[in-house]
Amino acid sequence: MSTLQPAQIKVFTFKDGLLARLAHDLRLSLGRFEIRREGTALSGRFWPDTLRVDGVVGKDGRVDVDGLSAGDKAKIQRNITDEILLTARHPEVTFAGALTPGGLLDGRLNMLGKTAPVRAPVRVEGDRLRAEFTLVPSQWGIAPYKALAGAIKLQDRIVVSLDLPADPASGSETTPDPCTWTGA
């Protein structure tokens, strides 16, 4: 009997700027979230203060978990929570939408008090549901993070990857109704 892999949300950031070669593309993991499906309706609650830096993404797509020191990871996390996502004032991100008959996730994401549309194809791969979509932070009023007077900055895009058990209870391809996926 195989062990069911837990639900995961990964966030990818991308470097930019004149001195981008000195910066890193990063993968982060969201530690606390709840996604609920009832019929075709989907809703989600996400706690951005639980984002953690997994490591540096190399040109080959592999994540180097030792590519940053613990101090650098902590500084990046503080910048995310304190300067970018302002989690003291906006502790929660929410999603409301639906799965279309064609397997498309279609809804609205509320972050930092602003709402913008989100669309992404959802795939069933074995016993997993997967979706990957690009968010443009400026849609929520988030300016790309800059360092060294803008010589190093982040692109105005992040990629969010959802990897959920198709059935949180049994791992089968049919998802019960209603169902909830959580990360904690």
Characterise the protein shown here:
With 184 residues, the chain is mainly beta. The chain has one domain (8-172): Lipocalin, CATH 2.40.128.110. It is 8% helix and 50% strand. It has one helix and 13 strands, in the order ββββββαβββββββ. It has one helix at 70-84; strands spanning 8-16, 25-30, 33-38, 41-46, 51-57, 63-64, 93-99, 104-111, 114-125, 128-135, 146-147, 152-165, 179-183. Strands 1, 2, 3, 4, 5, 6, 7, 8, 9, 10, 11, 12 and 13 form a 13-stranded antiparallel sheet that branches. The longest helix has 15 residues, at 70-84. The chain is globular and about 50 Å long. Mean pLDDT is 85; it is low at 170-174.
Short description:
The protein has 184 residues and is mainly beta. It is 8% helix and 50% strand.
Indicate the topology.
Blueprint: E1 8-16, E2 25-30, E3 33-38, E4 41-46, E5 51-57, E6 63-64, H1 70-84, E7 93-99, E8 104-111, E9 114-125, E10 128-135, E11 146-147, E12 152-165, E13 179-183
Antiparallel strand pairs: 1-2, 1-12, 2-5, 3-4, 3-13, 4-7, 5-6, 7-8, 8-9, 9-10, 10-12, 11-12
Protein name: YceI family protein
Domain Lipid/polyisoprenoid-binding YceI-like: 25-167
Biased composition (Polar residues): 171-184
- Taking the alpha carbons of the first and last residues, their distance comes to 24 Å
Q: Radius of gyration over alpha carbons?
A: 17 Å
Order of helices and strands: EEEEEEHEEEEEEE
Which structural class best describes the helix and strand composition?
A: mainly beta
**Could you state the oligomeric state of the chains shown?**
single chain
CATH superfamily: Lipid/polyisoprenoid-binding, YceI-like
Helical proportion, percent range: under 10%
- Major beta-sheet overview: 13 strands, antiparallel
Q: How much β-strand is present in the residues?
A: over 45%
What is the level-2 CATH architecture name? Beta Barrel
CATH class group: Mainly Beta
> Segments where pLDDT lies below 50 for 5+ residues?
170-174
Count of separate DSSP helical elements: 1
Shape from CA axes?
globular
The CATH topology corresponds to Lipocalin
- Residue-averaged pLDDT, rounded? 85
Number of strands: 13
**Structural domains: how many:** 1
